[in-house]
Each structure stands twice: as structure tokens, then as C-alpha cells.
Amino acid sequence: MKDIDSQIKKDLSADLPLPESFTNMVRNTVKSQKSKKQKKKVIILKTMAAACACLLITTSIVFAKDITKFINKFWKENKGIDTAIENGYIHQPNMEYSESNGTKLKVNEFLMDDNNLCLTFSLKPKEGINLNNIQKIDFSDMIITDENKHILYCEDKDTFEEYCKKNQLDNVWKIESETNINSGSNWFIPSRSEEDIQLVYNLYANQFPQSKKITIHMTQIVLFLQEDKSEENITLTGEWELTIDVPKEFYQSEKIVYQVKECNYPNIKSSKITVSETNTKFEMEIEEKAELPYEMTDDEETKERKINEYIEKQNQESFEDYKNRKKFKNEYIENEKGEEFYSTSSSMENSGYSNNNKGVKYWQTFTLTKYQVTDELIVHITYQGDEIIIKAVKE
Amino acid sequence: MEELVIAAKEGDNEAFLELIVGLEQDLYKIAKARFSCEEDVEDAVQETILQALKSIKKVKQPQYFKTWIIRILINKCNKMYQKKLNHKEYNEEINATNNAYTEDNKIIGKMDFYLLIKDLSYKERITMILFYVENLTTKDISKILKESESTIRNRISRARAKIKKIYEEKGVFDERYR
After folding, report:
1. A2, A121, A156, A338: which could form a disulfide with A199 (CB 3.0–4.6 Å)?
2. Which chain B residues are within 8 Å of A348, Cβ to Cβ?
3. Do B1-100 and B101-178 come out as alike in CATH topology?
4. How confident is the model at residue A54, as a pLDDT?
5. What is the rounded average pLDDT of the residues A331-340?
């Protein structure tokens, strides 16, 4: 028996390969708290990672490809954005540098869809700073707003509250906002020269509003000379404001809606397919008795007991059982050319299902874009072992 | 480690970071015992780090820092899991691509840990990790999981039997101990 014990110990104790996003999260979480202490501000971060790569960039398409390569590190599949960029879905604002106290900042490129806001900054720090020594750049009090006073991004509580007060907004600062703010961000430095350094910020949200003008404002840029030693940094202060007119194709991006023509599954109450420049959103509701662990007529005490029993049962099940219990599987969309487009495996907001007393609501995002659509599309989903096939035609 | 804990208690975040980085594997495995989805694992560990940072001053005995943070993590994981289930909506967000139990892992030989725990229930998984990886006593485990020591002992014995079966099925046990 002792031999088994030592073997189990050895096998269970063996180091697992930790995902890069995990190790980055650990470091960024602690470091972000450190910055807070120094600035006495509450900065809320759900930063996923920081990947540095020195690449020679020649065209915006290549550059944009790097953005998607970066995004795909987290969202596995985001081929929809690749396809959109190949078709020119990226904007170069052609703006002048905003200069303050000798430091210049501008946006070179940006891309915005329902869920992503990617910005490529070019920074020219004031004289005397060797750009090759910069390991990390922190726009710690950056706030991005639009013409309707929507806050698209803000990680700094003071800045957030000041903006809300100034604009008489009753938004409440939350760690993980239920609004569009702070759903998440990640960044990387793709290139640098003797004159400037490039920085990509990718922000993601459940649903960005259809903004026509974006304003980026900040008063502090922190240059970290060594990633792990925050005392070795340079803080540039000033006031930088950059305004971008969002091109029409971003805020009025063409959406192609499909109507269901045929479906082999009788209980589907409604379904909706919307194809955009960067992805396809699919939603459906299946009429079915809710799989709640309690009866709606149960009193609160009974409901709670049954929920606890349900949880206990779940606690006992193996991962295999859990995987098998998954309701929706093998989903993809097929066009008339026989091309298949799978789910983007992106954030929780973009895929999942919920039960309520009316039935099951399911939503998914696929990599199909308007550049690959045909007049008819077929959606395939395995639902509790049954293959649902939905044929849909352009509205 | 104790020196680092003392430094971290005094507000040295470098020391805190060193502590956490040293425990990365432990935290990851414990969260992984509850969630297969990487995002959930990261959320649970991140919340744990934030709470630990906030309340590290409350750690009275530095030698128990590891047990203390493990307890926080297990509670966070349980809370998150229950929230997901209780939340009116039984959202399920396990992407096959994110699943640590995919065939890919098996192919590239990262499987020992996952193979051993794959047929265990959550309680068995967490107990085995605390016992074999964290070297905690059944008494300590019983305190963390709020169960009796005999329940813990029985569970270890049951899980060990399951793992033994896996070894036998895979021929690992025979080869290694013949």
C-alpha cells in the first residue's frame, strides 16, 4: 500500500503546465494592487495577460493580424475578426500626436465591433528616455468615453467617479461591472523604434454601444523599466486627449438577419441568426419544462433544501459525468458551399444557456462573417443527444 | 516562506508576489479540482489573491499561511460553483477547447494528474490533493472541509482504491511494482 501512496503522491504532485494567461493573471493581480497602494487609488483590473513581442510591422493588415493573434491567445478562435480585417475592417484615424510636457501620444489604428475595442497607440516619451528599456506601459487613469457619455473603459475609480460627477451620471463603480465598463482588457508591445513605441490595448465587453466618436483621456503614463520592480519606473504626467471619429462601417455595420425556414426539432419557440462583419450571433429558445431541482410551488425552505441536495449531488459527480451533462454540443454553422464555422469559444457573455420556468434559452457566437454567408445557412447543434438542424434564409 | 509572510504582512508586495508565485501550482491544482474551465480557475484564484492581499495582516502564525490561503481558495471555489448553480440560471460554460481533460492533454503526456482524478468526485479530488500534494493531515483536512476526520479517512481510502484500479487498468502499477 505504501508504494501506491508514494506513486499517487508523485503523480499528483508533478507540476502541471500552467497556462500563460494564468501565470500572467497571478502577477498582474498582485502588481495592480501594488500600484493602487502607491497611487492610493482603486484600480480594478481583470487583466488577462501581457505578451511582449518585438515584430517588424510593415502594413496595418499585418499589424492587425498580430492583434488577432494576440486576442486568439485568449479566445482560442476568433477567425471572424481575421476575416473582417482581411476585408478592410480596420481604421487608421490619421491623427496628429497629442502632446503634453514633451510626451506625445496618438492612435494609429483601431477596430471596434460588438465585443472588441482594439487600439494601437504610438507613444513618443519626452527626451532622455531609452525606449529599449521600457518593459511595460501603464495608462493607469485612462478613460474612454463616447459622444453619448458612455464610459467604454475605465480602470481607475477616481477617474470614473469624477467623470460621472461631472456628467451627472449615476453609474456605480463595481469590480466587475454589469455594464459595458471594465469587462476586461489586455495589452502588449508589438514594436518599438528609436523614436516611438507601439502599444496595443484590446478591450472586450459584452456589448459595446454603437459609438460615433471615441475620446481617450489620460493624465498619467507610467513606464516600467523592469517588469518586476515597480520602483524602477518613470511616471509621465500631463494631459492627453485623443478623439477618433468612428467610421460608419463600425457603428452602422451591416447586419444580415436570417429567418428560420425549416427545423427538425418541434420544441423550438424562437431562434435568431444575425451575421455581422466579425461574427454571427445565434439565439434560440426551446420550450421545455425547466430543469429546476425544486417545484415552483415549494416553499422557500424546501426550495433551499432541494437546491442544496442538488449541489451535493453535483459535488459527487465526476468530470466525465459533468461533461456528459452538458446540454449543447457540437455546434456549427454551414453555408451553401459546405464550409463549416464553429463557435468562437469566447467569453461567457457570448456563449451559454440558461433555464427558466419557460424553457431553455441558448446563445452562441460563431466565426461566420458577412463575407462568407450564402443565401441559406444551416445551424447544427446537438441538444441532449438529439441533433437539431435549423435551415435559415436571408430575411 | 515564513520570512516572506512576515514581510508581506508589513506591506511588502514583492514578498507577497513571491509567496503566491511559489504557490501557483498548488492554487491551480486546487481550483482545477473544482473547475475544468480555465476562466473559472483564473477567476477563483484571482479572487483568492485579492482577498489574501486584503487580509494578510490577519495571519497570526506565518507557518500556516499556505493552509490559510488554501482555505480561502476552497471557499471561493465553492461559492462560485454554488452561485453558478443557484443563480436561477444554470449557466454552463465549459468550452471543450478549454477543458483540461481533452484528448490533447493525453496525447502530449500531461495526463498523470488528470488521469488520476478524472473518475473521482469533487470531494474525493480535493481531499486527495490536500492529502497527497499539500501533505495536510486528515485532521487539518477535516477542519478545512468541515467534515469529520473519519469521513476524510474513508474518502481517501475510497479514492485510493479507485486510483489503484486505474493503475492496474493501465498496467502502470504492475510495471512499476513488479
Report:
1. A121
2. 39, 91, 93
3. no
4. 20
5. 92
Contact B93 A323 (CB under 8 A): no
- Higher per-residue pLDDT: B173 or A96: A96
What is the model's pLDDT at position A61?
39
Query: Could you give the CA distance from residue A360 to residue A354 in angstroms, rounded to a whole number?
Result: 6
Alpha-helical (H) ranges within chain A are: 2-13, 20-39, 60-75, 79-86, 157-166, 248-251, 300-316, 319-325
Of B85 and A337, the structure prediction assigns the larger pLDDT to: A337
Q: What is the set of domains in chain A, with CATH numbers?
A: 19-249 (2.60.40.1630), 256-394 (no CATH)
- What pLDDT score was predicted for residue A73? 43
Minimum-distance CB partner of B132 among A9, A30, A320? A9
Per-residue pLDDT, A35:
41
- B151 near A CB under 8 A: no
Residues A160-177 as b or e (16 or more Cβ within 10 Å = b)? bbebbeeeeeebebeeeb
Q: What ranges do the domains of chain B cover?
A: 1-100, 101-178
How large is the ipTM?
0.83
Record: fold of B101-178: Arc Repressor Mutant, subunit A (1.10.10)
Q: Are B149 and B142 in contact (CB under 8 A)?
A: yes
Greatest mean pLDDT range, A268-282, A348-362, B81-95: A268-282
Yes or no, beta carbons of A22 and B167 under 8 Å apart: no
Are B28 and A322 in contact (CB < 8 Å)?
Answer: no
Which residues of chain B make contact with A383, given a CB cutoff of 8 A? Answer: none
**Chain-chain contact of A30 with B13 (C-beta, under 8 angstroms):** yes
Nearest chain B alpha carbon to A310: B85
The answer to whether B121 contacts A318, with C-beta atoms less than 8 Å apart, is yes
Higher pLDDT pick, A201 / B98: A201
In the predicted structure, residue B109 carries a pLDDT above the cut 90: no
Partner-chain contact A33 B13, CB within 8 Å = yes
Smallest Cα distance from A342 to chain B, Å? 12
Give the cell for residue A200.
496595443
pLDDT in tens, A37-71: 333 222 222 222 222 222 222 223 344 555 555 55
Domain B1-100 in this protein, CATH class:
mainly alpha
Q: Which amino acid is present at A235?
A: T
The C-alpha cell at B155 is 474518502
Choose the weakest-confidence range: A72-76, A84-88, B148-152: A72-76
> Which B positions 32-91 lie with beta carbon below 8 A of chain A?
32, 36, 38-39, 41-42, 45-46, 49-50, 53, 81-82, 85-86, 88-91
Among B4, B12, B13, B168, the strongest candidate for a mutation testing the A interface, having the largest count of A CBs within 10 A, is B13
Confidence of residue B176 (pLDDT cuts 50, 70, 90): very low
B106 close to A (CB below 8 A):
no
Question: Under 8 Å CB-to-CB from B117, ≥6 apart: which residues?
Answer: A12, A319, B33, B124, B125, B128, B129
Q: How far is A77 from chain B (nearest CA, A)?
A: 10
Q: Which of B24, B177, B41, B173 minimizes the C-alpha distance to B99?
A: B41
Q: Specify the pTM.
A: 0.49
Give me the sign of the Cα torsion angle A99, A103, A108, A109: negative
Question: What is the DSSP-derived secondary structure letter of residue A125?
Answer: P
